[in-house]
Amino acid sequence: MLLRTDPFRELDRLTQQFLNTTGTWSRPTPMPLDAYRAGDEYVICFDLPGVDPEAIDIDVERNMVTVKAERRPHRQGDEVKWELSERPLGVFSRQVMLSDTLDPAGITADYDAGVLTLKIPVAEKAKPRKIEISHSGSRKQIQA
Fold it and tell me: Any idea where the SHSP domain is (predicted)?
């Protein structure tokens, strides 16, 4: 289970997009994400098109996952005259608070086609388990 920590993040993202501001390290632009559960793991997908994998930084501190990335402009030469530039540049960041039912020590990351995918396993203590009951010499199993 993921916990949302900032209800105004989407409003900030739309405002920055409308004003065409560039994210900086002190004030990064939020990146969009999808999150879902697939079996015994949670999956979080971050949109980072055009970002070099070397420019992505993932930190985990307790139950907080922080993803930062930087999209730099491509060098085009001195004779290039820009007519239109709509793709956002700069620093992007997103923090996700994980619940206690997830295991941050088992996080894996993959970057493919501009999408960073984090897989977070469900903690053993949160998985369903069977408990045996002893009764008059016979044993029954119930599911907890």
Answer: 24-136
